[in-house]
Amino acid sequence: MYDAVERDLTSEKRVGLVYPTYMLDAPIAVRELVPKLRFPKGAYIYIVITCGAQTNNAIWTVRRLLKAQGVDIAYCNKVRFPDTAGLAYHRNPNDQVWKFEKYATRMDEIVADIAACKHALHYAGMDPLGCLMCVPALSEKAYRPFQPSADAEKCVGCGLCEKICPQKNITVEGKCASVGERCTCCLRCVHYCPHQAMQIGGKPTQKSFQYHHPEIKVQDLYRS
């Protein structure tokens, strides 16, 4: 996404934007990508997001970016997944795998809605707490507990985090990984580090708290 260039979608009859919720909002990469896209007039455009619980401004922000281009969405909704940022509050994401079964019917309903070109705006409003993240001084403080960094004593420089970072924001220098300034707080590096060397907020990462989607292999993350 970071390398995305302008793409012409004007010949499409249906366009979907599917993305996760990071830090009460849409990921930085999504916010940068949407203004580069050219959308069709009169097409059925929808948004589906994943989140741990609350959507906050994850839909509202992208909807606002689309409106700036004169584009209105027809449908939006959310599906709850394990909260991978939960380990920042000492909550184990692996204790939330029940969400897959519980919200499977929600996914089926969303698929049916989109197939039928249903018009419905779920969770599309502005969230006051999410808006606070737009204030630089506040967002900097809010991001700090979630900022990944490498523990130099644990890091062996294997380079896995560098390969799977979707922002290409991690480099390995010598035997230690270094996180750059374009972190979107997806925490992929934290959850997949085989040595638990990547940590957030300076807190040690417990192996039992590292979350891996049961149907995703690390090789899949290379390709993405």
Could you describe the 3D structure shown?
With 224 residues, this protein is an alpha/beta fold. The protein has helices at 28-33, 58-67, 98-102, 104-115, 128-132, 136-143, 160-164, 188-192, 218-223; strands at 7-8, 14-20, 37-38, 44-51, 75-80, 120-121, 148-150, 170-173, 176-179, 198-200. The strands form 4 sheets. A 4-stranded parallel beta sheet has the order 2-4-5-6, with helices on one face. A two-stranded parallel sheet has the order 1-3. The protein has a two-stranded antiparallel sheet with strand order 7-10.
**Intertermini distance:** 10 Å
CATH architecture tag of the largest domain: 3-Layer(aba) Sandwich
The strands making up the biggest β-sheet line up spatially as 2-4-5-6
What is the average per-residue confidence, as pLDDT, rounded to a whole number?
A: 89
- Radius of gyration, in angstroms, nearest whole number: 18 Å
Instruction: Kindly report the CATH topology of the largest domain.
Output: Rossmann fold
Strand content: 15-25%
List the helices and strands and how they pair.
Layout: E1 7-8, E2 14-20, H1 28-33, E3 37-38, E4 44-51, H2 58-67, E5 75-80, H3 98-102, H4 104-115, E6 120-121, H5 128-132, H6 136-143, E7 148-150, H7 160-164, E8 170-173, E9 176-179, H8 188-192, E10 198-200, H9 218-223
Parallel strand pairs: 1-3, 2-4, 4-5, 5-6
Antiparallel strand pairs: 7-10, 8-9
Keywords for this structure?
two-stranded parallel sheet; 9 helices; 10 strands; alpha/beta; Alpha-Beta Plaits; 224 residues; Rossmann fold; single chain; 28% helix; 2 domains
